[in-house]
Amino acid sequence: MVPAAKDKTLILGIETSCDETAAAVVADGREMLSNIIASQIEDHKKFGGVVPEIASRKHLETANDVVERALTEAGIGFADLSAIAVTNGPGLVGALLVGVNIAKTLAYALQKPLVAVNHVMSHVAANYLVHPVQFPAVCLVASGGHTSLLYLLSRSETQLLGTTRDDAAGEAFDKVARVLELGYPGGPAIDKIAVDGNPDAFKFPRAFSGQDQNFEFSFSGLKSAVINTLHNLEQRGEVIPKADIAASFQAAVVDILVEKTRLAAESKAAKTVLLAGGVAANRQLRLSLQENLTRDGIVLYYPPPELCTDNAAMVACAGYDLYKRNEFAGLDLNALSI
What does the buried/exposed string (b/e) look like for 129-160 if buried means 16 or more CB atoms within 10 Å of the residue's CB? Predict the structure, then answer.
């Protein structure tokens, strides 16, 4: 074991919930000793989105190598680990099963505790790796599969304030990017082209806007409005102003995310707000949240881009808290889609 890791609680995190195969070693719930990610973006790009069967097969092909690289980079062996933490849901069931079965095998063979980590909560935990978070706090989790507002009393006490009724914010980004032929993944593509667009060019809907104490989200209607606008322009033979449509769509998403987050922080008198998930890498969302929250004296924290998207360091971090509370999973652990 490397000197830096001596006498520390070492958690191996494994993440295979979607299209990243990842493994990481985190010491004492804060110190990243390794964080290996094998992305499948190139494998799914030609389909315009993630194909579950392909994702599962790629995880099978790369997972063992990724785990080995994580241990090597951390400078430790399997025997040095304190526990194995794995994402068991929500996510793509076939993809999740790859990681879950690897984690169960390791836990059984090494006689180490097995910890089951919720994917949404692991995104929250990404902030703990880089920020000295003060509680209570409100956290906005916005990703391809989830959009939720959480009230955090501590690293282990969480209340759900609201979630999406239909499409998640990241899913809407991907679908709008697809119809605009901007490529996959959609979030970064829209963020890039929107810089050159007019966010006021189109008035797209903002569901649940202006409803105090309502922390629910809905992006399906917004997505449909963008698609209908595009079809109408095509039917009239007009040039498609992709940058304007992207900027207007992004503005609608950001407006509602910021409004709901600010209201949630206000309702809970929280002076700390966390941003997490893949959409947390969106530049306009970060800027708008920063501007709005600073006026109210609220501190905003968000992870660096590499910890916003799916990774295993956040899984190991979240797993550390469960490990310290002796919340272990059995070898009958299964994958959960929701």
Answer: beeebeebbbbbbbbbbbbbbbbbeebeebee
DSSP letter at 299 equals: E
SS3 track for 49-76: CCCHHHHHHHHHHHHHHHHHHHHHHHCC
Burial class (CB in 10 A: 0-12, 13-18, 19+), 54: middle
Could you give the 3-state DSSP secondary structure of residue 235?
A: helix
The DSSP bridge partners found for residue 23 are 14, 36
CA separation for the pair 322, 326 (Å, rounded): 6
Q: Which CATH number fits domain 132-302: 3.30.110.30, 3.40.605.10, 3.40.50.12240, 3.30.420.40?
A: 3.30.420.40
Block means of pLDDT (10 residues each) for the chain, 338 residues, are: 71 96 97 96 87 95 97 98 97 97 98 97 97 96 93 95 94 94 92 96 94 91 96 95 98 97 96 96 96 94 95 98 97 94
What kind of architecture, by CATH, is found in domain 3-124+309-324?
2-Layer Sandwich (3.30)
Amino acid at 36: I
The residue written with tokens 């074991």 in the block is: 1
